[in-house]
Design a protein that fits this description.
By secondary structure, this protein is mainly α.
Length: about 325
């Protein structure tokens, strides 16, 4: 084989001498173009802490209802007051939580049960005071800051009621059921405001549903004046159209359970039809305008947008 088949390689004296004099520099130059660590490289504690600090730190527990500061920053919030993010940062505004409209139903039910239990214990204490039973001792315990639960238990009365099974129908008295005195001696079983049903327990249940879920968001009339006019059979702040429209909307809020004696879906349709028949567009009474507004919500809930819009135009 002749030597002419091989090309001559010119030696690079500068690079070879530099690499020979400073091998570390040569290594760094050769690997400088690849920022990735070599295979098998393990992070030092300083490197691992630096990389972890760059990662986004999430709170241990995350709430669905974040504070206003976390909402503005689109950050996760732990639900504490103040939350961890507001406590560790210098925020210009206070850590404030807004009550969400879609507040969990379970939390509201829990609060209602607690308030009912407190009301029951207060009633027991007031009843003992009204009968002059251990009045000085009760007042002394109240001054000392004793809890209502302990006072009722000390009186030997039942401090708790099973509010888990106590439904609005089982209440001993309806807030909307007229008494014989209020109706002038007329029997309460005779229907007055609606002919759909004469069951006062069902009507009371529907009223409680409406004023618990609809009235706080859409306050179309005064609950107190409505209840007073309803009980006394006065048309000042109540009417047949308003009662039927309220009951029609409340039927859509009823949670069906096994053992329901009434068909609330059918009742809702009957209440709605009865309300429509009694509504006159030319009637300028306040209760009629309020009934049109409630019927707007009824048809919105049922997906009847055109008719709902017509009711809204009349009510406004």
């Amino acid at each position: 084989m002749s030597s002419s088949n091989f090309r001559k390689i010119r030696p690079s004296f500068g690079k070879s001498s530099a690499s020979a004099s400073n091998p570390s520099q040569s290594t760094s130059e050769s690997t400088g173009s690849d920022p990735r660590p070599p295979r098998g490289h393990k992070d030092t504690p300083a490197e691992s802490s630096a990389s972890s600090s760059k990662r986004r730190r999430l709170p241990e527990s995350v709430t669905r209802n974040a504070c206003l500061n976390c909402k503005k920053a689109r950050a996760k919030c732990d639900g504490n007051k103040p939350c961890k993010r507001c406590a560790t940062r210098v925020e210009t505004s206070e850590c404030i939580y807004e009550i969400h409209i879609k507040h969990p139903k379970e939390e509201l039910v829990k609060q209602i049960k607690e308030l009912r239990a407190k009301d029951h214990m207060t009633e027991q204490i007031l009843q003992a005071l009204s009968t002059n039973e251990k009045v000085p001792e009760i007042l002394e315990r109240l001054r000392n800051g004793d809890t209502y639960d302990s006072i009722v238990e000390w009186l030997g009365r039942s401090p708790l009621v099973d509010f888990e099974t106590l439904s609005p129908r089982e209440s001993h008295h309806s807030a909307y059921e007229p008494s014989d005195h209020e109706m002038g001696g007329v029997g309460a079983s005779k229907p007055f405001w609606t002919k759909v049903t004469s069951d006062t327990a069902i009507l009371d249940h529907l009223f409680q549903l409406y004023f618990a879920w609809i009235h706080p968001v859409h306050t179309l009339f005064s609950e107190g004046r409505f209840a007073e006019s309803y009980g006394r059979r006065l048309e000042s702040y109540c009417s047949s159209a308003l009662v039927n429209s309220v009951c029609a909307l409340a039927c859509s809020l009823h949670s069906a359970v096994n053992g329901d004696e009434a068909n609330y879906e059918r009742l809702g349709a009957e209440f709605s039809d009865t309300a429509r028949k009694s509504l006159e567009p030319d009637d300028s009474r306040l209760t009629t305008i309020q009934a049109f507004a409630v019927m707007h919500l009824v048809d919105c809930a049922r997906g009847n947008a055109l008719r709902a819009a017509a009711y809204l135009r009349i009510s406004t």
